[in-house]
């Protein structure tokens, strides 16, 4: 048995389900909603999250690497699974064994898949990634026609769809996103001889802010986990039903002590008390995903009140100022992410202090701590 850690991530299944259903409602009626469950579902747990999405009606899942896809398959996800980051030649048989759909971006991969298909006397469906403006993975639009022509001559390869990815769809007014979508649409149209082709380019920003760019499938990541791709701005802009944050992060106080003014706290004494100060020591540090960049910046909730992180965050410990909070004791609940009584600390607020985005906060917290699932 694994002993329970002080530090616990709580995942709300009902919030995952709510977000899936809301995004489905916001997409066009016939648009498939693929759940991006890479990075262990942005820290929420790939297998458990995928099962919740599946129950909510999801039939398409996206991961980065083949290893994740195989894990999903073995856990009983029998729907479409897409691998977005390519593969090593040695892993090609796994795509056939587990019927996984690779997203390809070079002809060498297609040839490798084709020869395996011939060997196994099977057919494999592939989707083609086109770089319409992200400047990341993908073939360039001017190579697309020729690429597809060659692809369609390869035995055992079924050209099933095309994909692109938006770099700026989290900016609701980005002209770039419209331009990129036009570039993508042109490719789709030229392939109208393949009517069952699945086209997908919208991420969360695309779904929320460019709904007319939905095509036949959209790929939601951060929004499934309850966050807007543009952070607090998105929360403010959203009218009607909102996404619900899914993750909370809780720990408990280890020790409480009162020290006089002029006392240095933690490594380097980067914080020195300016009055008699009551300090609570918490069993959470950068090893648990609480970034060291939050030293002397972050806050936590204790007894429903905010307590500032003082001094440097250590590997497994940090200190907070509880002078103004009555009666704090060892064992009291501490919330690092989520709500306690009337107060709330959001992933966006933490991200802002780190100079980052909610995506990173969720991965750091979720993937470095024990998770429990609640309804
Ligand atoms: C991660 C990812 C997404 C999801 O992006 P969000 O902004 O989290 O919605 C979509 N498509 C691809 C290719 C991705 O890598």
Protein model, in words:
This protein is an alpha/beta fold. The protein folds into two domains: 13-237, TIM Barrel (Alpha-Beta Barrel), CATH 3.20.20; 247-374, Lyase, Ornithine Decarboxylase, Chain A, domain 1 (Beta Barrel), CATH 2.40.37. It is built from twelve helices and 20 strands. The protein has helices at 13-26, 38-43, 46-55, 66-74, 92-97, 107-120, 141-151, 175-190, 204-209, 232-237, 347-354, 358-366, and strands at residues 8-12, 32-36, 60-63, 80-83, 101-104, 124-129, 157-163, 198-200, 217-220, 247-252, 255-259, 264-265, 271-272, 277-282, 299-302, 305-310, 318-321, 333-340, 343-345, 370-374. Strands 1, 10, 11, 14, 15, 16, 17, 18, 19 and 20 form a ten-stranded mixed beta sheet that branches. α1 (13-26) packs across α3 (46-55) and α11 (347-354) crosses α12 (358-366). The longest helix is centred in the middle third of the chain and has 16 residues, at 175-190. The chain starts with 7 loop residues before the first strand and ends with a strand.
């Amino acid at each position: 048995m694994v002993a329970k850690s002080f530090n616990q991530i709580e995942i709300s299944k009902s919030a995952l389900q709510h977000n899936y259903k809301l995004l489905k409602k916001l997409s066009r009626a016939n648009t498939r909603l693929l759940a991006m469950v890479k990075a262990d579902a942005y820290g929420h747990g790939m297998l458990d999250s995928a099962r919740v999405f599946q129950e909510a009606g999801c039939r398409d899942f996206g991961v980065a690497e083949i290893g994740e896809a195989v894990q999903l398959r073995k856990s009983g996800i029998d729907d479409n699974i897409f691998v977005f980051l390519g593969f090593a030649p040695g892993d090609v048989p796994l795509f056939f064994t587990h019927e996984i759909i690779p997203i390809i971006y070079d002809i060498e991969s297609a040839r490798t898949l084709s020869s395996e298909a011939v060997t196994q006397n099977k057919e494999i469906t592939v989707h083609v990634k086109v770089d319409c403006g992200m400047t990341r993975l993908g073939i360039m639009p001017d190579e697309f026609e020729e690429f597809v022509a060659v692809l369609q001559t390869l035995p055992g390869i079924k050209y099933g769809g095309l994909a692109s990815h938006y770099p700026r769809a989290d900016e609701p007014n980005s002209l770039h996103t419209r331009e990129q979508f036009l570039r993508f649409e042109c490719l789709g149209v030229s392939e109208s001889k393949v009517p069952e082709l699945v086209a997908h380019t919208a991420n969360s920003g695309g779904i929320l802010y460019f709904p007319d760019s939905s095509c036949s499938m959209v790929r939601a990541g951060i929004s499934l986990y309850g966050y807007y791709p543009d952070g607090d701005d998105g929360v403010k802009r959203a009218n009607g039903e909102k996404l619900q944050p899914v993750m909370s992060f809780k720990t408990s106080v280890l020790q409480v002590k009162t020290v006089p003014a002029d006392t240095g706290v933690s490594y380097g004494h980067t914080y020195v008390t300016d009055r008699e100060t009551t300090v609570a020591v918490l069993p959470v540090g950068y090893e648990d995903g609480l970034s060291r960049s939050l030293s002397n910046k972050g806050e936590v909730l204790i007894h429903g009140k905010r307590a500032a992180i003082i001094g440097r965050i250590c590997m497994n410990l940090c200190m907070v100022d509880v002078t103004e909070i009555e009666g704090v004791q060892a064992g009291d609940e501490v919330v690092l992410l989520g709500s306690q009584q009337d107060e709330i600390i959001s992933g966006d607020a933490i991200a802002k202090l780190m100079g980052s985005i909610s995506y990173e906060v969720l991965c750091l917290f979720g993937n470095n701590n024990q998770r429990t699932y609640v309804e």
